[in-house]
């Protein structure tokens, strides 16, 4: 069921939601959170589709905020709010309100969203594109317990990671971090099979300007305390991780974006499923936890600049030999496994 409202108010939108639920014979509200999606017309359809699919696991009220740019000075001075209310099958599991802001109301989107939030329910704000420089201080981000960005959609993802580190606040997270959860879990499990072995260096290979590869490299460097080299491959996405150990290398290699091969000294090669996930799966994972992600914060603040390049890998390894030996792999694996579970 869809209800179109032109030049409307938040009060009329709330009334339309109530009428829509009553028309469907379901007046009770059974949603667990409010998901606010801040996007543009170009990306609104894909973002809403992903949110609808994720809502099957997390029933929610979805508020899609689209800021329409006015062409003339007269239109920019005139504030107008148009809305499309969807309930029932048209809204996945939950309710959807598409808000189109025109004119001066664009600068006061929080005043439109605030009356539409579910009472006593967590709020998650997601920017598929065009995230603010400081999500926690953004007027809409300030309403949320969890703020989701995606550095992959930025023109310079590596520079964006540095900005995210500088402005990080508890509750911030990024889709680039969510994409590497299966990699972190698989690497932690591999290290558990090599108790007591020492890791001396690591290398992460992936496409250029891939923030997930940078984050995975920073996570390994932060957790293992060893030099980590970031190398460039043809993709797709992340392609390989190599951990140098006293017993021989541990290699997790994925060349096709779907199936990976885990190679360890003294053991047969194993094929493991490591496919690239859809946005709906990533969003569903993000909505499973609403508390601050300390592991993400620690990896992010490690800093891209501290990662090595292939040309600097040898000097870094030599410097590592002169320093005290790194922590045993057993301890590092336990830390990694705990971090991956978060």
TrEMBL record:
Residues 51-165 form the Glucose-6-phosphate dehydrogenase assembly protein OpcA N-terminal domain. This is Glucose-6-phosphate dehydrogenase assembly protein OpcA. InterPro entries: G6PDH_assembly_OpcA, OpcA_G6PD_C, OpcA_G6PD_N. Residues 311-342 are annotated as: Disordered. Residues 170-300 form the Glucose-6-phosphate dehydrogenase assembly protein OpcA C-terminal domain. Residues 328-342 have a biased composition (Low complexity). Pfam families: OpcA_G6PD_assem, OpcA_G6PD_C. It comes from Streptomyces morookaense.
């Amino acid at each position: 069921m869809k209800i179109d409202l032109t030049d409307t108010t938040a009060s009329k939108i709330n009334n339309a939601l109530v009428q829509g639920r009553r028309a469907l014979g379901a007046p009770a509200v059974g949603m667990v959170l409010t998901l606010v999606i801040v996007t543009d017309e170009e990306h609104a359809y894909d973002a809403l589709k992903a949110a609808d699919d994720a809502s099957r696991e997390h029933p929610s009220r979805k508020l899609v905020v689209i800021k329409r740019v006015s062409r003339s000075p007269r239109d920019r001075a005139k504030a107008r709010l148009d809305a499309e209310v969807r309930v029932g099958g048209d809204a996945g599991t939950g309710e959807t309100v598409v808000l189109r802001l025109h004119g001066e109301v664009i600068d006061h989107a929080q005043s439109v969203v605030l009356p539409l939030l579910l009472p006593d329910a967590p709020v998650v704000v997601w920017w598929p594109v065009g995230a603010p420089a400081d999500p926690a201080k953004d007027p809409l981000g300030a309403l949320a317990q969890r703020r989701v960005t995606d550095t992959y959609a930025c023109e310079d993802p590596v520079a964006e990671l540095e900005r995210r580190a500088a402005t990080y606040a508890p509750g911030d997270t990024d889709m680039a971090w969510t994409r590497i959860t299966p990699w972190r879990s698989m690497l932690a499990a591999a290290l558990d099979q090599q108790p007591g072995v020492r890791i001396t260096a690591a290398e992460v290979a992936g496409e250029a300007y891939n923030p997930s590869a940078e984050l995975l490299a920073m996570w390994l460097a932060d957790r293992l305390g060893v030099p980590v080299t970031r190398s460039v491959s043809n993709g797709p996405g992340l392609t390989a991780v190599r951990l140098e150990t006293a017993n021989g290398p541990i290699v997790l290699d994925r060349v096709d974006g779907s199936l990976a091969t885990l190679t360890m000294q003294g053991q047969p090669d194993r094929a493991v499923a490591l496919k690239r996930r859809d946005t709906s799966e990533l969003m569903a994972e993000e909505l499973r936890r609403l508390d601050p992600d300390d592991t993400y914060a620690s990896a992010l603040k490690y800093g891209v600049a501290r990662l090595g390049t292939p040309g600097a890998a040898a000097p870094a390894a030599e410097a590592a030999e002169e320093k005290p030996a790194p922590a045993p792999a057993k301890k590092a694996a336990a830390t990694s496994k705990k971090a991956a579970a978060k």
